[in-house]
Write a structure and sequence with these properties.
Blueprint lengths: L2 E2 L2 E2 L4 E6 L8 E6 L7 E11 L1 H7 L16 E8 L11 E4 L2 E3 L5 H4 L10 E2 L11 E5 L4 E2 L15 H10 L7 E5 L3 H12 L3 E6 L4 H9 L4 E4 L8 E6 L6 H7 L1 E9 L20 E4 L5 H14 L5 E5 L3 H9 L6 E5 L5
Parallel strand pairs: 12-13, 12-15, 13-14, 15-16, 16-17, 18-19
Antiparallel strand pairs: 1-2, 3-4, 5-6, 5-10, 5-19, 6-7, 7-11, 8-9
Helix pairs in contact: 3-4, 3-7
């Protein structure tokens, strides 16, 4: 794409990786460049993170995607055209685009400040097309200016793993000193840096036998790392479960002190087995996290630049999206997988 003065030349077509059938690999397709509505902006995508939620969509564990679908909701992009009623972002600005892509502003949840629970919400890369593409359109209300150090591929994981991790983290309570994290992937490797900055101690739980992930957790600053079936060296004050495994809920409760909180931070989890009431008793709290709010994104991105969070990424060109998804599926990515577009200059 070339620019002339302040005008950005936009091509007639773009490439995108598309989910046509649940359970099948993505297919490369050519589409006309989408046209933004009056309240949308057209963006040229720089990079898009590959999230475990994308796997849940492709595998049919999240059951209501639009089809065909362009996945991806951890988008770093440059605004190339703005709708006539937009005012928050400007052409040429580099922005982040997260999972939550639209809310009605009128339902009982939106009116209570719980837009993450909006009854008419739309989600990037799930019910609206996302970032496994060279271009996309997005509601300008859900675009976030990025600090300069994250206006590139390294910023992609912050848009979901970071923001959802941050929302989960805020629910563990200010006084939680020992914090357990079950599933040490993209969200955990970001969150551990924030927790250490706030003088907390991280206990990392991985799939049994995943010594590489345990080594990675210790390198990131965890004070203990082991199999999820192991007992930690100390009881925890709170825990966050990112792994989509319901059997971890009773384990996390049993490893948590009285008055502690266990937060389920994923969008999908296998069934939680029954467990004795004594694991919950003692005023322990079990809760879930759903989506994000714009305030979450604004607060976290500001904090990330203050803490100087470093994201560990493994990059892939757009046409290798299926390889990135498979690497994520089989635990071959430590940190975050990110698609980098071939058309950026």
């Amino acid at each position: 794409m070339q620019s002339t003065g302040n005008r950005l030349k936009i091509p007639a077509s773009m490439q995108a990786m598309v989910l046509e059938t649940i359970g099948q690999p993505l297919v490369m397709k050519t589409f006309p460049i989408p046209v933004p509505s009056s309240q949308q902006v057209l963006v040229k995508i720089i990079a898009c993170g590959v999230c475990r939620t994308d796997l849940h969509i492709i595998d049919g564990e999240l059951t209501a995607p639009k089809l065909p679908l362009i996945p991806g909701h951890e988008i770093v992009a440059r605004v190339v055209k703005a709708g006539r009623e937009t005012s928050r972002v400007k052409t040429g600005e580099i922005i982040g685009i997260p999972w939550l892509g639209y809310t009605c502003g009128e339902c009982k949840y939106c009116r209570k400040g719980q837009e993450n629970l909006c009854e008419s919400a739309l989600f990037t890369g799930y019910t609206i097309d996302g970032g496994y593409a060279e271009y996309a359109v997005t509601d300008e209300r859900y675009c976030f200016p990025l600090p300069s150090q994250y206006a590139n591929a390294s910023g992609s994981p912050l848009l979901c793993a970071g923001v959802i991790g941050y929302r989960s983290y805020t629910m563990t309570g200010k006084h939680a000193k020992n914090l357990g994290i079950y599933g040490f992937g993209a969200a955990a490797h970001i969150l551990v840096q924030l927790a250490i900055h706030e003088d907390k101690r991280i206990f990392a739980f991985t799939s049994d036998g995943d010594v590489e992930a345990q080594k990675f957790a210790m390198e990131q600053g965890a004070v203990w790392a082991g199999d999820s079936s192991q007992l930690p060296a100390e009881k925890m004050d709170a825990a966050i479960i990112f792994a989509p495994a319901g059997n971890l809920v009773p384990k996390a409760l049993s490893n948590t002190n009285k008055g502690g909180t266990v937060v389920c931070g994923g969008i999908h989890m296998s069934d939680i087995p029954s467990f004795p009431y004594r694991l919950l008793w003692g005023e322990r709290v079990l809760r879930s996290v759903a989506n994000l709010t714009r305030k979450d994104a604004e607060d976290f991105l500001k904090l990330a630049s203050q803490v100087l969070i470093n994201t560990q990424i493994k990059t892939y060109p757009l046409h290798q999206a299926n390889d990135a998804l498979n690497d994520l599926r089989y635990g071959m990515v430590h940190g975050a997988a990110v698609l980098v577009m071939d058309n950026n200059d």
